Amino acid sequence: MAISHKFKQAIEIDGRIIGADMSPYIIAELSGNHGGSLEHALKLIDIAAKTGVDALKIQTYKPDTITLNHDGPEFIVKEKLWQGRTLYDLYQEAHTPWEWHEALFNRAKEKNITLFSSPFDKTAIDLLEDLSCPAYKIASFELTDIGLIQYAASTGKPIIMSTGMATLDEIKEAVTAVTDAGGNQLVVLHCISGYPTPISDCNLMTLLDLKTQLGVPVGLSDHSLADTAAITATALGACVIEKHFKLQGDTTSVDAAFSLDEEQFSLLVHRVRDTHACLGSPNYRLAKSEQDNAPFRRSLYVAENVKKGELFTEKNVRSVRPGLGLHPRHLQELIGKPANQTLTKGTPMKLEYVTQ
Q1: Domain ranges within the chain, ordered by starting residue
Q2: What is the CA radius of gyration of the chain?
């Protein structure tokens, strides 16, 4: 499937430009780490605002809008983190109650941090539109829900889309769904839906291929346990970094096992910002920090006392530091020629000292 349409190479959420060589837009994913407590959810917003992240993201669904209340084998998680739990039970615990949403959006506004959400059905988008949600995130598991993507894109809001488990053709179909609904602001996040994701599974070079294949800004939704993937993705040009966020000391919330706490997230933000600052742009001018050292580059100096008429040799003229004499490229021009005046050791060499 070919991608023929064009997207904006930078999107805007709450006045923040994303892409266009800007520092990555860092999202703290709240998910189910509120632990069923509105107080904890509000506290997470307060703490996130202190870490320097650009945005906090929640998830908007009800157990009945995301799965069936059924205990058949296909509705039971078979292994790893949530082994033995029914999907309905898991989502009952993890969901963010809809009656909390207004309070969460209000708190985010008070703290001057952007809050947006991953909707999981059309009714969730309707709720979020009433709350002036500034953008929508399509979760990896919903990438194949073309109707959901089109409904979200039809709002005209920026779309951020994760690609965990998807084939390239599925990703292209989802991207096409955005434009079919009139959307032109899209960021696609490379994602591995492993909880947690081993570093060896990250395959971050996919970022570069996604950008080439799709012609959209790209980023990373990261479920690994450290910040290595986020930093590496930044170096590869990711314009969005998303990672799960939890309260300090939380070990029991549904996503706590692969989430970062306040201290870890603050460090992540610092390292991502530093990594982006390191990249800069192609530049061969003298950096400001180099200016004091520029005089100590090599140049040609008189290395031994030289009498008038004495021939210059590689022994009495040498390339040394500092750089106040002739450029070293002139050394062979001097060798074997006589000095036209007496020179003392340590004199910066000049062409005018040479008898031509």
Answers
A1: 15-279, 288-353
A2: 30
Quick one: pLDDT band at residue 1, thresholds 50, 70, 90?
A: low
pLDDT tens digits, residue range 247-289?
Answer: 999 999 999 999 999 999 999 999 999 999 999 999 999 999 9
Q: Quick one: which of 303, 305, 300 has its CA closest to 315?
A: 303
**Interatomic CA distance for residues 241 and 221, integer angstroms:** 6
Q: What is the pTM of this model?
A: 0.90
Strand partners, 161: 138, 188
**Could you give phi then psi for residue 88, rounded to 5 degrees?**
-60, -45
CATH topology of domain 15-279: TIM Barrel (3.20.20)
243, 29 contact by CB (below 8 A):
yes
| Nearby residues of 293 by Cβ (< 8 Å), 6 or more positions away | none
For residue range 129-143, what is the model confidence (pLDDT) as tens digits?
999 999 999 999 999
- Which amino acid is present at 192? I
Distance of alpha carbon 182 from alpha carbon 271, whole angstroms: 36
Topology, domain 288-353: Type Iii Antifreeze Protein Isoform Hplc 12 (3.90.1210)
Q: How confident is the model at residue 81 (pLDDT cuts 50, 70, 90)?
A: confident
Q: To the nearest whole number, what is the mean pLDDT of the chain?
A: 95
Strand-strand pairing, 10-13 and 299-302? unpaired
